[in-house]
Every structure is written in structure tokens, then in C-alpha cells.
TrEMBL record:
Family annotation (SUPFAM superfamilies): RmlC-like cupins
Domain Homogentisate 1,2-dioxygenase N-terminal: 3-274
Pfam families on file: HgmA_C (PF04209), HgmA_N (PF20510)
Keyword Transmembrane: no
Family (UniProt): Belongs to the homogentisate dioxygenase family.
Stated name of the protein: Homogentisate 1,2-dioxygenase
Segments forming domain Homogentisate 1,2-dioxygenase C-terminal: 276-427
Amino acid sequence: MSAYMSGFGNEFESEALPGALPRGQNSPQRCPFGLYAEQLSGSAFTAPQGSNRRSWLYRIRPSVLHARNFRAAELPLWETAPCRTTTAHPIDQMRWGPTPLPDGAVTFIEGVRIMTTAGDADARIGMAAGVYVATRSMADTYFYNADGEILIAPEQGALIFDTEFGRIDAGPGEICVLPRGVKFRVSLKDGPARGYLCENYGAPFVLPSRGVIGANGLANARDFLTPVAAFEDSQRPSVMMVKWGGRFYVCDTPSSPLDVVAWHGNYAPYKYDLSLFCPVGALLFDHPDPSIFCVLTSPSAQAGVGDVDFVIFPPRWQVAEHTFRPPWFHMNVMSEFMGLIFGAYDAKPSGFVPGGVSLHNAMLPHGPDAAAFEIAIHAELAPAKLENTLAFMFESRLSQHPTDFALTHESRQADYAACWDGLPDRFERQRP
Ligand SMILES: [Fe+2]
């Protein structure tokens, strides 16, 4: 059973037991129900008011009883920036088919396969992007990421995220964001699962500025959902796994760390249904930049430039007159990691399939394939709706370096760049 509060970055408050939340102060001498008060900081104490994030958690045991006496653990496919591959590779545009589900039992955490990294996790700049595959739920195992927040976009199979703040369900077409330091466990809701994830080392995701679009449209704050408090009072010995500085550690814990009975604050996990995104686009002619489809951005120190932008290409009407309607050919200072959650993508009607990935790195040209171009220049330009399509992009101002996993991936399409082979020289030389 999941229940949510609506809003983005609000000062939320929630209690699973009436009266568990202290009134009028954060850290009373004795908390109600004998709970411990603990602050989780998502920004420096001194961060400006607009970007200051923290929550107060009222828990059965303080986190020090759940995370100490660590031993090293290995998750070799969850790579962290800076990560330069040992596999020689060209700089080419790249594309992959879906990552197959494993035969054995693999949890969400064990099933993370990072495909690109950018920046430097220790410097709190950049990101990692990849896919996850999962065939079993985490049982008595919990995880938190000290290196960054995680954005998860399921493509196949719904997931249940039991977090310190409460429960989030997310299936294909939705996203879930788990802030840095938040403890959680992932269960499968309806069988094997696969999807995409972005680990964001930099500033937490926020809604982008809308500029002249105004106060409404794109992703609206009220459609983001944060769970209400729910706790586990379990005495079962469990394992806590932590990602810290690009390495993994485990420790034993005598009980569930999801023992937060009440909490308040503006630093909490959330989900968002991508079908609620309100696209804005060209109403007469031409094709604006894809930034109009930005759902969330992790701002860098450079004004208006994201360390990571999460952008979607949802179902929408196309009405522009005398216009080439699919994405145009271009070269970009930003690097683009794309995935497809369902349907087909208009610039790549074949070869780019749900579960697959493409990577168009900084300053590498790309655009519609030959078939899409041919269709687009001859298309009847009546209003038309793009239905059954949901692609997305993790776009970064930093170059994305493919990992060994990506370069040696069994579904890597070595002939991807051939999709532009059929573009003829169309220059009308003889025309006066
Ligand atoms: Fe692009």
C-alpha cells in the first residue's frame, strides 16, 4: 500500500503513528514514543535558502546502529567517474540493443550495469548512466548511495522502493528519484524488471526554469509524489550495503534501517508519472530545441547549463507547417545518452528499441536515419499525433565515457553509423 503527498521540494511532514512528530522543535530532550531524532542533510548547512535541503527523521534506532564496521564488497559493473576504459574504442556514435535479463537470481542493486560515466564523483560533478536488470527482490538487504542521487526509469516490470521515508511504487512510464544518503530496499512487483538509471553526483535535480513559458506547463510541481511515513519494526539481522567514493561496502545490522516512524523536511524521495508532462512546442512552423522537453535538471555552476538534464520525448501533436518535423541533424556541446521506454522514436523508427540505448557524445554529429529523413521530407503535413512513444535523454555538459561493459556488450550494434549510409547527395547542381 503506497500513499503520497503532492509537491516538489516542499516542506513535507508525515507521521506513521499519530503524535510521533515533535511539535514546535526538531530535537526535543525526549522525542515522542522514545524515538531518536536524526537530521539527514542534502546540502551544506549553509547553502542558500532556495537550495538548502534537509529532513528530520524520528527513528527507532539512530543510523549509527545500521551503518558501521564495514567490509569491502564488489559490484564491478557499477562503475563511477572518473572511469576510463581499458578497451580501445572509436569515438563513434554508438547504439545498443536491450540488455538481456539474467538467468540467475539478481537483485536491483546487483543488476546495475553502468554504460557511461562523466565528471568526477568525488568532486560532486557529473553522472553515470546505464541500465538495471532484476530477477529477485532484495530480502533483508538495504542500500544507500553516498555518491549521488539515483533517478530510475523502469522499462519493464514495476518496482517497489521501500525507503526510510515510506514506500514508492514505480512502473514503466514513471520515474523514481532516491536522494543521496536515503536508505532503501527494492522489490519486484510483477516479475523480472529492467530499466534505466542515472546516478547524479552533482546538485540534486530541480524543475527547470520555464522562462517566458510562465508559471505552468512542462512538469508541474503538484504531480510529483513523495511517500507518507511508513516504518519496519523488524529485529531480523540484515545487511546494509553502501556505495561510497565509487566503492562498495557492507555491514551487518541487527534490525531494519527503515525504522523511521515520522519525518519532516524538504529532502525526500519522490516519483513522477511522465504521462503528466505537459509538452510545449511549435504551433506554426519549425522545431524548437529539445530543451522544451526537460523534466528535471541538475544545475551546474554555469548559469542555464545542466550537469545532467533529464529530457523526455512523449506522445504529442505535431502541427508545424512546411517543416521538417523529426529531430534535425545536429552537433551539440552536450553529450546525449538516450533510452526508449516504449514504442518507437520518430528519428529512428527501427534499430532503436525499448530497453536499448544510444550515445551521441559531445560534438559528434547525429540526426534522423536515412529512412526517417526520406519519410519526413515527403510527409503530408497535416496535424498528426505521435502516439505510443516514450524516449528519454540523460544529457550532460560533460563528455560521457563508455564503460568496458558498454563497449563489450553483446547487443552493441557495431554497424549503427550505417543508418546514415542511405542519405544521398541531393544537391541540384544543374539547377540554374
Ligand atoms: Fe541530439
